[in-house]
Amino acid sequence: MAKPATQRPTLPSVGRLGLVEPPARADLDRLGWTTDDYVELLWSLSRAPDADTALRTMVRLADALDDGWDELNRALVKDRGLRGRLFGVLGSSLALGDHLVAQPTSWHLLSGQITLPSATELRRIFTEMAENTSETNDLRVLYRDRILVLAALDLAPTVENEPVLPFPTVGEHLADLADAALAAALVVANRTVCKDETPPRLAVIAMGKCGARELNYVSDVDVIFVCEKADAMTARVAGEMMRFAGEAFFEVDAGLRPEGKSGELVRTLESHVAYYERWAKTWEFQALLKARPAVGDAELGQQYVTALMPMVWAACEREDFVSEVQKMRRRVEQLVPAGVRSREIKLGTGGLRDVEFAVQLLQLVHGRNDESLHVASTVDALAALGAGGYVGRDDAANLTASYEFLRLLEHRLQLQRLKRTHMLPEAGDEEAMRWLARAAHMRPDGQHDSLGVLREELKRQSLRVSRLHAKLFYQPLLESVEGNAVELLPSMSPEAAERQLAALGYEGPQSALTHLAALTGSSGRRGRVQQVLLPTLLDWLSDAPDPDAGLLAYRRLSDEMAEQRWFLASLRDEGAVAKRLMHVLGTSAFVPELLMRAPEVIRQYADGPSGPKLLEVEPESLAHALVASVSRHTDPLRAIAAARTLRRQELARLASADLLGMLEVTEVCRALTSVWVAVLQAALDVVTRANTPKDGPPAKIAVIGMGRLGGGELSYGSDADVMFVCEPVGGAEESVAVKWSVTIAEQVRALLGTPSADPPLEVDTNLRPEGRSGPLVRTLASYEAYYSRFAQTWEVQALLRAHRVAGDEDLGYRFLLMADKTRYPPGGVSTEAVQEIRRVKARIDAERLPRGADPNTHTKLGRGGLADVEWTVQLLQLRYGHEIEALHSTSTLDTLNAIGAAELIAEGDVDVLRQAWLTATKARNALVLVRGKPTDQLPGPGRQLNAVAVAAGWDNSDGSEFLDNYLRVTRRAKSVVRRVFGE
């Protein structure tokens, strides 16, 4: 019986090859690949990341080779490795495809058994060519050829089952290639500049990724020049070297040199040492972690590294180390626009810079005491940190894998056009993402195609980096205090733990370790949950202005909430709750005390269907609820206790939302006013009920808000300025009505003034007629008689803020109509009254500022502060209120808008005053939030000023910038005040 003939594989269809463009069949015809002899070759082509692009480039390559095409065709059929390398390159890199078309014989570099040359061999090849040619193009072709070979080995596994090139090998070879290119550029520069003279002694120090031998395919090469003589010839050699390298190979960046781009291009070793000893910033020492003598004078280069490295390892003991590190972290985050943050694999959250920054910081912190950390590459440093117990070994391994994955994507994105980029394709560009997936060795996994695999992997890796970024700093710290770390594994010593906490911003690292031990030392569920939560919580706390106070507050809150399971569950399950709480605790002394007694507000830190739950409460509805709650109690003390409870919750909610940037300062002031009004009404109601005779009250009573209460502009530290007005009812004698009303007013003041742990409820009645010496309560007729005959200028001015806030509405409304006759009299206030206001203001400026206060930074009485703006506005109201009804407002900002609309002063001046009032009010509120008690004086530079800046909504925690802005705004306002107020 005859044997059956061997069945040959059939030629696949264009669709099965992954070719989607119509010209594909014609291109196959042009290459002669439409016979069964090319089946295996076509299947290899189909596995290229972009088969269409690879096919089109092959057609161009065939045209360029002309008679040499047959040789390549035969080689492709026989050499499986060549197929994988060539198709991998052409399907991944348009730029290298163009290079091959321009240099078609370079395909021979990809055939046979190829290996990567050593650093020494590379330098010899490049140097010899530089010595024998002056043509830039020859060296450019050589450089691109070497990139082609590396990329081909790197990409071959996407097409054929070639060995995967280890990631560190790629970065190391690229750095070796950069060194060789720099050496060639230096040869050309010496020949061009020096001619027959002896070249100067010049060392080129590689920095950044080149210095660490972890270079990208496309990257600027960072360098620093060290010379024996900083003369004109040496500077010209360095400059010519950079210029030639830029034309032939890559951009050379010397921006990391002392003083940056404004500094001298070349410096002697002595000059470098002097600069780093006296002037260098923390980031400059961090950059030196990767310094490596690359080319030029080897002895001089080594002397440079030997001289500067001791300074690098002592950098963490610099006074400004912590603040500089925090600035660097924020600066990186701010570099990325929010709209592209999810596509940025380098600078985005959970990206490459997160890993690199964390690793370098840990090296700086512990490197002085552990020489094993004196390594340059990120991967090597992670391994050393794991081996030394500064990072968990599993965490180090996982972070290394994530880092190498993200670097692989970065390499593929750069190879496509040989352009520097770190940006993933746009979300809707599925073809670009599918190409990237294939180029990065992604294969279908049964559930997802290659694109789906990439998306899942990106999500997983980004989350892992973000999670490990926090664990990297804090998990070893927790293990150092738990006392239950796995034996035989290295663990961080107490001294190392304190160093690390200090570097992360904790001024009391010993106390911080005590708090950590207490938090994780609880047995059972609480301790286990805290161990899981704390790495992330501590990371968020380290970004707050005062991590020490925040950690103490968190420990106290955790102890208080020990029996409330929902507390830790909310922090564990609601990321927004935990992050917001850490920001609040690490910024404010005011809110933690409220949360200790109103912890239910923490639940409102979560996000609801329409946004943060902190914003779901309307101040007006809460005010009604407060009054209604109090009305259910007949005992005044219990009633006010209920009012205090609701006020405490509302203050905690408002202050939390304020600190988290959810409310404008005007919204905060209105809400605080609403709370005070509700408390006054509730207190008045309960006291009135308790003191009303059986035959009914002898008087109606109304509470008139004055000052900031009347203006709806209360701040956290404000008292409630009020006046009480009464009117007899039911035929009661005036003396009886007044006496009864005084009893009510006194009891309201006493009841609200009862000492408690909450922020005080002080009722101030000193703005009444005759001040402290005047009657506490008057009838409406008595007020009218007094104001019409005896009102002093200050009393008239005080009435500008008068507004009914509690009690009988009709009586309060009639009081305001009466007050209008005094504050907005026909014909306006007299010239003498205006002069009196100016005289009183001058006396206040000279006498009222507290002893030792800085007049430039006192938010209330200081230069361009609240008093300056408000007195200016009130003077204009007194002068023009009788003519312009729009000025009949108790609100400073509303009145300013009316002043501008009436063109009483220039709109620019109105804006200056508005900004000063808003800036001073924000600062005044922030002072209370940070310090926990009323104060008007901004602190000097330091941690507390930084916290005030954050609490005031400044866009970073640099208190000096915040203070500079405050001084600038108030200085401009004072200029307007002098001009307008003193006319």
Automatic annotation (TrEMBL):
Q: Which reaction does it catalyse?
A: [glutamine synthetase]-L-tyrosine + ATP = [glutamine synthetase]-O(4)-(5'-adenylyl)-L-tyrosine + diphosphate; [glutamine synthetase]-O(4)-(5'-adenylyl)-L-tyrosine + phosphate = [glutamine synthetase]-L-tyrosine + ADP
Record-stated family: Belongs to the GlnE family.
- Residue ranges for the region (Adenylyl transferase) are 485-983
Against InterPro entries, the record matches this protein to: GlnE, GlnE_rpt_dom, NT_sf, PII_UdlTrfase/GS_AdlTrfase
Q: Name one GO biological process term.
A: regulation of glutamine family amino acid metabolic process
Organism, per UniProt? Mycolicibacterium hodleri
Q: Region Adenylyl removase: list its residue ranges.
A: 1-477
> Which keywords does UniProt give here?
ATP-binding, Magnesium, Multifunctional enzyme, Nucleotide-binding, Nucleotidyltransferase, Transferase
Q: Which GO cellular component term is one of those annotated?
A: cytosol
Going by the entry's taxonomy, the superkingdom of the source organism is recorded as: Bacteria
* One Pfam family it belongs to: GlnE
Please report the name of this protein according to its UniProt entry: Bifunctional glutamine synthetase adenylyltransferase/adenylyl-removing enzyme
Q: Which GO terms describe its molecular function?
A: [glutamate-ammonia-ligase] adenylyltransferase activity; [glutamine synthetase]-adenylyl-L-tyrosine phosphorylase activity; ATP binding; magnesium ion binding
Q: Give start and end of each PII-uridylyltransferase/Glutamine-synthetase adenylyltransferase domain.
A: 327-473, 840-980
Q: Which residues form the signal peptide?
A: none
Gene of this entry: glnE
Span of domain Glutamate-ammonia ligase adenylyltransferase repeated: 117-303, 579-816
| EC number(s) per entry | 2.7.7.89, 2.7.7.42
Cofactor(s) recorded in Swiss-Prot or TrEMBL: Mg(2+)
Question: What EC class does the entry list?
Answer: transferase
What is the documented function of this protein? Answer: Involved in the regulation of glutamine synthetase GlnA, a key enzyme in the process to assimilate ammonia. When cellular nitrogen levels are high, the C-terminal adenylyl transferase (AT) inactivates GlnA by covalent transfer of an adenylyl group from ATP to specific tyrosine residue of GlnA, thus reducing its activity. Conversely, when nitrogen levels are low, the N-terminal adenylyl removase (AR) activates GlnA by removing the adenylyl group by phosphorolysis, increasing its activity.
